[in-house]
Design brief:
This protein folds into 2 domains: 2-99, Beta-grasp domain (Ubiquitin-like (UB roll), Roll); 103-248, Alpha-helical ferredoxin (Fumarate Reductase Iron-sulfur Protein, Chain B, domain 2, Orthogonal Bundle), CATH 1.10.1060.10. The chain is 29% helix and 12% strand. It has helices spanning 30-40, 103-111, 130-137, 147-151, 153-156, 168-179, 188-194, 206-210, 217-234, 236-244, 247-252, 302-305; strands at residues 2-11, 14-23, 60-63, 66-69, 84-87, 94-96, 99-100, 258-259, 265-266.
Length: 338
């Protein structure tokens, strides 16, 4: 059927909305329609794209005013008589038509300190528990489409904030590295507060709403980072302790033991300000066993692999179920019989 499109055409000097009537077939996405426009009506229409599979983040644009990926927005989501309006990302300078200059994000990426392993640990000797992998796995799904950067009103509405504000994309990068047990770089919390402008964010969750990978940017990255900064900077007990003790004594002192809901003593958490599943605790508040020792050859004992403990708690909640075919069971071996 024929559908009506309105596409912004122009460059940095100015432009205007142009109207097009274009054929749309069943099952197509917005990027398919843009390609048909280029092939039939306006060959000079500029649009950035690469994979057409929702994994490169190149075809970011605003569709009817909402930041989306052109390759992941199906035409079936619009009403048959609805006009579809395509405009470039408003936060970044326009190059031409639907293509914007997103170099701001790469500049912020270069400013973010990279992962640094502990001194003396060689590549190939890194060891992580599964719970540590799951803790930050969500943030590594980012495809850098920069939709979250575009919709963040801190830079969208205030150009003057860009030098001091990195944006949600790099807050989750800082959170990921802060949760990494092998990252020995300088304090990520202080860096986020001092250099990334974490305090500018007022957690409206607009970045989470537009993320095509459904990363909970605000709840799982920005808010925990803010809580850790507040604990360190404004908690009266921490403030008093830093006044009484030297910094090295305070940082080297073991954390006090805590107790779960049943009164049992738990091991202290090494992640400041982190609670619940993010700290490696299950729904009952208990902590899974410590990681078994690694042999000189870098491998675990077979006995450890046959442990009755399945592993750390799932970050998706204890009620998460996985679809298994009928008749399939998973039996944990018991040390007495196996």
């Amino acid at each position: 059927m024929k559908r009506h499109f309105r596409v912004w055409r122009g460059d940095a000097s100015g432009g205007e909305i142009e109207d097009f009537d274009v054929e749309v077939n069943e099952g197509e996405v917005v990027l398919d329609v843009i390609h048909r426009l280029q092939a039939t009506q306006t060959p000079d229409l500029a649009c950035r794209w690469n994979c057409k599979a929702g994994k490169c983040g190149s075809c970011s644009m605003e569709i009817n005013g909402k930041p989306r990926l052109g390759c992941m927005t199906r035409m079936s989501t619009f009403e048959e008589e609805e006009t579809v309006t395509l405009t470039p990302l408003r936060t970044f300078p326009i190059i031409r038509d639907l293509v914007t200059d997103v170099s701001f994000n790469y500049e912020k990426a270069r400013e973010t300190p990279a992962f640094a392993p502990p001194p003396g640990v060689k590549p190939g000797d890194y060891r992580m528990q599964q719970i540590d992998v799951e803790r930050s796995q969500e943030f590594r799904k980012c495809i850098e489409c920069f939709l979250c950067q575009n919709t963040c009103h801190v830079v969208r509405d205030h150009e003057e904030n860009k030098p001091a504000f990195s944006g949600p994309r790099y807050f989750i990068r800082a959170a990921e590295l802060d949760m990494h047990p092998l990252d020995a770089r300088a304090d990520r919390k202080e860096y986020s507060q001092q250099h990334q402008g974490l305090g500018y964010c007022n957690i409206t969750k607009c970045c989470t709403e537009v993320c095509p990978e459904h990363i909970k940017i605000t709840d799982n990255a920005i808010i925990p980072m803010k809580e850790r900064v507040v604990d360190r900077r404004y908690d009266p007990l921490v403030w008093l302790g830093r006044k009484i003790f030297r910094r090295d004594e305070l940082d080297g002192a073991p954390a006090p033991a805590t107790r779960d809901s049943g009164g049992a003593s738990m091991a202290p958490s090494t992640s400041e300000g982190v609670t619940g599943v993010a700290a490696g605790l299950g729904s009952s508040g208990t902590r899974p066993p410590e990681a078994p020792a690694v042999n000189a050859d870098g491998k675990l004992d077979v006995a450890e692999l046959l442990s009755h403990q399945a592993g750390g708690p799932s970050p998706f909640g204890d009620d998460q179920e996985f679809p298994l075919r009928d008749g399939i069971t998973y039996r944990h071996p018991t040390p007495e019989k196996d």
